């Protein structure tokens, strides 16, 4: 178990038989949890499983309808989140609790401002806030206004605000949802450091790689009830997903197509991208899912971007429907009925400053205009269809897309590209950072698109996703195809063999002509 810190420390807090009702509706029923010094609990479950409700009760934001909370062996009743924080329990929320009209430093030190009486020492306040950020591992302008921050900077500020209270128990709710890989690794290092100081951690997360890096224990909730608990070292990702969704892992993925597609939609022959990706030979049959996997950083990203014209093929030939094509830009790709869901939805897939409606319609503005005038009725229809087709959970179509969960944001990226009626769909890490329920819905959508004749290529580092979704699988190693396996015959062992070394039988070559 990579990076987990198993420790059977002294019990700090126990929640016993906790239940919560809202207007007669039971949202949490008879759930117990135990926090120990220096131990990290992963709290997982689908959306609506009761995770945030449980943590809000433990951190004083909600009062239990039934059950008891014990701190250091004594029953406690937190009057508020401030009361819980004063007793050593901090909660870094996913729904940020920041004041936009205040600075980063003022938010971090809110309620703990240095000074005398009503006078606040602003210089000292911002110095202390900077020290807190540095302790976590981040550098930020503490005088910046929160309203001017990026989503990642807001999340970091929220974490620093919680840490400023010097907690004994630190609760994180989806702490990496807005962070990039480097920022996430810094956070993991900080969590390791505080665990070594005997601070207890509870992490709500749908990112399996995160919990296996940081936690030693896992608790699974489903429909407001406790369903499973175990040391993480004794679990697998497949087991946890099965517990979360309430069915066997094998039934998570939609059924593959039974017949073999005859017509080849896309072919790459001796494709090369830059100096690293070489000798790529791939066939994508019509109406199938072709998976491209391997360890991260083996050229998958470069290849995916070249297929959509975001990077240039420097050698080889690109065929669509048997005809050689040149895809030198996304505009070229779109003209050939190609769509692309990028790896980073926040920076490349969406405009976070715009609404759900504006993002969904962004690729079909020309279709809905006539003589320079927009057809509002057609736009409304397209927006409603996109929301309904993908089950996007949104209060109003004009809500800013930045306010939605990762799963709903990803569905919007899919929706805007599906609106173009593609014949070819390239997907790069399509479910990374997405909750389990949204993953299942996206899997079903992808398979339904293939039934309609769309040819799909999915680039994924998730081995279970690769095996479960793909009709045909190619593995990349050091910029080349190291193996090809039928999806039905694929196993983790075979994929790892191809992922770890180049296949000697692979024919390498470079086309004399750039695609």
TrEMBL record:
Annotated InterPro entries: AAA+_ATPase, ABC_carbohydrate_import_ATPase, ABC_transporter-like_ATP-bd, ABC_transporter-like_CS, P-loop_NTPase
GO MF terms, alphabetically ordered: ATP binding; ATP hydrolysis activity
Matches recorded under Pfam families: ABC_tran
UniProt entry tagged with the keyword Plastid: no
Stretches assigned to the ABC transporter domain: 13-248, 261-503
Keyword annotations: ATP-binding, Nucleotide-binding, Repeat, Transport
Name of the protein in question: Sugar ABC transporter ATP-binding protein
Lineage of the organism: Bacteria, Bacillati, Bacillota, Clostridia, Lachnospirales
